[in-house]
Design brief:
This is Tetratricopeptide repeat protein. This protein is mainly α. It has helices at residues 48-59, 75-86, 110-120, 132-143, 158-162, 199-210, 212-217, 219-228, 233-245, 251-260, 274-285, 289-298, 308-318, 328-332, 348-361, 364-389, 413-422, 424-436, 440-448, 451-456, 461-478, 481-498, 501-518, 521-537, 541-558, 561-574, 581-596, 603-619, 623-640, 643-660, 663-679, 684-698, and strands at residues 64-68, 94-98, 149-153, 172-177, 190-193, 305-306, 337-340, 343-345. The strands form 2 sheets. A 5-stranded parallel sheet has the order 2-3-4-1-5, sandwiched between helices. α18 runs antiparallel to α19 and α21 (461-478) packs antiparallel against α22. The relative contact order is 0.09.
Length: 699
């Protein structure tokens, strides 16, 4: 069991070594109605026939629509326009996710999309189930009676979509994809092909941006420009932005430029349209040198979207004097999208174009420096958040190569945690990029700096496993045995929770050996406690208790309060399982005293000690004391928002009442626990129902 769980703990955290098959959840909270649709495109043009067809489908009750077509054809703009026109039909709100099926990174994991939807529907971060199957089941449960409009943008596959379909017959789903996704037809999907704009509508789109008078003056050249752009709204918008930014420029001039460069960047392929590539090339060529360099280097960003901090860091490395306004030329030229307040991304085709330009126009060493600048920025920012959230943690120093600038400052835990949650995908991606550079030391630090997020927000076990496994790989490439021990220790604990006892014990034994080699007593004791937890999970209570007694003795010699308190709790909760409840009582009371002195940084583990004491008193037959301790623990867990732990203590109250012969009170506590578990989406609700049934049959 991990000793890293210190500081003020928000939400659920379990360190009771003998509990098996536990999933930690938060209840559905009172959340606002989700209104996640991005705003419609300001220059959306026509599509009258397609919109009429979509309206007819919705009137017929066809509520599952897949919009398909090539990149840049305007599927998202069409989907948003239509979604806004029908959104009032769906009284419970709208959900939206960009599944990023055709970007330069991997498509969005279904678990991440489900997690975002569950949070939008009121499930607290700690209440997100560990597996995709459980997440999907909870999502179906929450949407079964709701009327929602769900927009799934840029889907890569049918499998990515299926888990995100709400269960209600009164909801609607709109999907956009470059693939036809005909596999969804048996699921009720209606495929709608989105074609390029006809010439008339293409001219109208240009007129909306550059002005009808300008188009009227050069109608023939405007029609020529529309034809060169192939009716693709993305290409038309880029060309129009060029014209809008240069009022004295003729349409003929831009049309000639696009025509001259239509054969460039053929590597993008005919299917994507050479005129789109030419439009990007023209816009790029007219950027000032600093903006062009920023355009190229930001395309190397590890994730798909980013905030202003990393932009300014890259821009400062190019020209500190203009860094504060460097992004504006890219926004004006429609080469960068502003998707939310202070959040930006490239369209996938634009990003590919920018990367190709980086390969052509940047020396190889400059490219590596640009990547390292961004990766080190994420480490520096995440480290600042880490230091606010877990100030007690041991962190080895890291000396950056690029000296990251424009790092955020966090005055409070809330801001640090919010930043870390928002940038989680980018920090994880930065770790992978660092490993590929290769820069193993930085890759390890980027894994380590995620610990507060893993501790407080409880992402899926799969994500935790991958982060720790990457940390082990990075430590080995770096050649740092202590760093490897840290990650093996964490990896072993995750394997315990995943039910892989063999891998858990192997990793934890290896961590113990490496800590011993490094002479780190505290680390060795921590890994030994983790190994004892693995033994308990595997049903080996005897060896677990023996090892925990060694850990407690070592912790007393170490003389550090918090590790001592955790060792007391772990052993105290394990002893009743081997018939030694009386010996557990003084240990758990001592743990209470230890955490009373640490309540300002770790209120959670003090409650764990009280809950453990209630269990030990029950095991020893001291029912009044057990009930008092359990009631106190339940109230304090409720105050902390630790719903799963509150439910477990409520089950304990049911057992105490059952031992007292109070069948009605036992039933009341069991039903309350079932309600809490169900609200948290925990499978423990079923086991408690069985316990309630046995209680009633025997009573």
């Amino acid at each position: 069991m991990s000793n890293d769980l210190s500081g003020t703990v928000l939400g659920p955290a379990v360190q009771a070594g003998s509990i098996r098959d536990v999933h930690i959840h938060q209840p559905t909270t009172s959340a606002p109605v989700p209104r996640q649709l991005p705003p419609p495109a300001a220059n959306f043009t026509s599509r009258a026939d397609t919109l009429a067809h979509l309206d007819a489908l919705i009137e017929e009750g066809r509520t599952f629509v897949v919009l398909t077509g090539p990149g840049g054809v305007g599927k998202t703009a069409l989907a948003l326009h239509w979604a806004h026109s029908i959104r009032r039909r769906f009284v419970d709100g709208q959900l939206h996710v960009d599944l990023e099926g055709f970007g330069t990174a991997e498509p969005v994991d279904v678990a991440d999309a489900l997690g975002a939807f569950l949070r939008a529907l009121g499930v607290a971060p700690g209440g997100i189930p560990a597996t995709v199957a459980e997440q999907a089941a909870l999502y179906r449960t929450l949407t079964a009676e709701q009327s929602l409009l769900v927009l799934l943008d840029n889907a890569f596959s049918a499998a990515q979509v299926r888990q995100l379909i709400p269960a209600s017959a009164t909801s609607a789903v709109v999907v956009t994809s470059r693939r036809r996704l005909s596999e969804l037809v048996p699921d009720g999907a209606h495929l709608v092909e989105v074609s390029p704009l006809p010439a008339r509508d293409s001219v109208e789109l240009l007129a909306r941006t550059v002005g009808p008078q300008r188009v009227a003056r050069e109608r023939q050249q405007t029609e020529r420009l529309a034809e060169i752009c192939g009716g693709l709204p993305l290409a038309l918008c880029v060309a129009a932005a060029r014209l809008a930014a240069r009022p004295m420029l003729s349409v003929r001039y831009v049309a000639d430029e696009l025509a001259d460069e239509a054969t460039r960047l053929t590597g993008l392929g005919v299917a994507e349209g050479r005129t789109v590539q030419a439009a990007f090339d023209v816009s790029y060529r007219h950027l000032d040198p600093g903006a062009a360099a920023l355009y190229r280097r930001l395309s190397l960003h590890p994730g798909t979207e980013f905030g202003p901090g990393v932009i300014r860091a890259v821009a400062t490395a190019i020209d500190p004097a203009t860094a504060h306004r460097s992004i504006e030329p890219l926004l004006r030229a429609s080469l960068l999208q502003e998707i939310d307040e202070e959040r930006f991304r490239y369209h996938d085709l634009v990003r590919l174009h920018a990367r190709l330009k980086a390969d052509m126009d940047e020396p190889r060493n400059d490219l590596r420096t640009a990547v390292l600048t961004q990766v080190e920025w994420y480490h520096g920012a995440a480290r600042r958040a880490d230091e606010v959230l877990t100030p007690y943690r041991r962190r080895p120093a890291y000396t950056p190569v690029t000296g990251p600038t424009c790092l955020p400052r966090f005055d409070a835990r809330e801001g640090a945690l919010t930043w870390l949650e928002r940038e989680r995908v980018n920090v994880v991606a930065a770790g992978q990029v660092a490993l590929e550079l290769p820069h193993a030391e930085l890759a390890w630090h980027l894994c380590d700096v995620l610990w507060p997020l893993l501790l407080l927000l409880k992402p899926s076990l799969r994500d935790r496993f991958e982060i720790h496994r990457r940390g082990v790989t990075a430590a080995r490439l770096w050649g740092d045995a202590w760093a490897e021990a840290v990650m093996l220790n964490r990896l072993g604990r995750v394997c315990t929770r995943l039910g892989d006892a063999e891998a858990a014990e192997s990793n934890l034994h290896a961590a113990i050996r490496l800590y011993e080699t490094a002479g780190d007593v505290r680390g060795r004791l921590d890994a030994q406690e983790g190994l004892a937890s693995a033994y308990l999970a595997a049903g080996r209570a005897g060896p677990a208790v023996h090892l925990l007694e060694e850990v407690l003795a070592g912790s007393r010699r170490l003389g550090e309060p918090r590790p001592l308190g955790l060792a007391l709790i772990t052993l105290g909760t394990a002893l009743p399982k081997v018939g030694r409840a009386a010996e557990a009582l003084p240990l758990l009371r001592e743990a209470q005293a230890v955490f009373d002195g640490l309540i300002h940084i770790d209120p959670y583990n003090g409650v764990r000690a009280t809950a453990g004491l209630a269990g030990a008193l029950l095991a020893g037959g001291e029912l009044p004391g057990a009930e008092d301790a359990a009631n106190e623990a339940a109230q304090r867990m409720r105050a902390l928002g630790a719903v799963h732990e509150e439910a477990e203590v409520t089950v304990l109250l049911g057992r105490i009442a059952r031992r007292r012969g109070d069948v009605a009170a036992a039933r009341r506590h069991y039903l309350a626990a079932i309600e809490l578990f169900a609200a948290a989406g925990s499978p423990r609700a079923s086991a408690v129902r069985d316990e309630l049934r046995c209680s009633e049959e025997s009573g």
